Amino acid sequence: MILRPCAPAEIEHSEVVQPAWPVIEQTENNCARPCWIVTQPDHAALAGDIAARLGPPLIDAVDEEVISGIALHDEGWTRFDSPMPARDEELISFFDVTADTALTAWRSSIASAEGAGPMAGAIVSRHFWRIASMRISQEKDGPREIDMLQRFLTEEQSRQERLVPGQWRQMEAFTDVLQFCDVLSLYLCCGATQDVSFPQKFRGASPVLRRQATSGDSVCRFEPSPFSGPVDLAVPARRYPDGNPRQFPVVMY
């Protein structure tokens, strides 16, 4: 699950724009309880909505199969995230899940995406292949977990070769799109307020997100923009511990 602070933070501007991923991690680690909770499947659906609105000149419009894969890329977390945690239950951010839980959710997510088509399954597989590789490099797990992650890498490499033979470059490019939409959705879901940069490059440019100070919706301006025009979306969340739902509007351009 993604944790979101109840009290909205002030918009933060800095001459040095921070990478998005550390900002998301810091926001998650500093989130006090009570808070809002966004499920991983809801976050993925938002990433799919973002993907459906990508367009020139920075990014070519994405086809329906790839959009479906992006929207389903965390579907395997449903069994873990859907039940509302009990009042006295510890809230565990997605940053802190065990390797066992992550691998179970990843495999289920890949299977869901593969049902939408071979490229959809391949890019979700590649997405988690990259995450597993990064997790191994961080040396945060024990020998048993490292062995499980290594086996996962081997399995998924074979799956990718089976699903999209001869389309490796296209798969990698679509995986970059997935991971851009994934990180942008996580940023919006966690309630971060800093200006941030993204590691993905499209036509040689890396998007930078700058926050606009408003009294209502969250407004994000991109330089350069990955969208052809303004985009209106909403982050679905549930308040912990009472479970009351809320939509947080977002405007991006």
Explain what the structure shows.
- The protein has 253 residues and is of the alpha+beta class.
- It has one domain.
- Helices cover 46% and strands 16% of the residues.
- The chain is built from eight helices and eight strands.
- It has helices spanning 20-29, 40-52, 64-71, 78-81, 99-114, 118-138, 143-163, 168-190; strands at 2-5, 18-19, 35-38, 196-197, 208-212, 218-223, 231-240, 245-252.
- The chain has an eight-stranded mixed beta sheet.
- A hairpin with a 5-residue loop joins strand 5 (208-212) and strand 6 (218-223).
- The longest helix is centred in the C-terminal third of the chain and has 23 residues, at 168-190.
- The protein is globular.
- The mean pLDDT is 95.
Blueprint (SSEs and pairs):
Blueprint (H helix, E strand, L loop, with lengths): L1 E4 L12 E2 H10 L5 E4 L1 H13 L11 H8 L6 H4 L17 H16 L3 H21 L4 H21 L4 H23 L5 E2 L10 E5 L5 E6 L7 E10 L4 E8 L1
Parallel strand pairs: 2-4, 6-8
Antiparallel strand pairs: 1-3, 3-7, 4-5, 5-6, 7-8
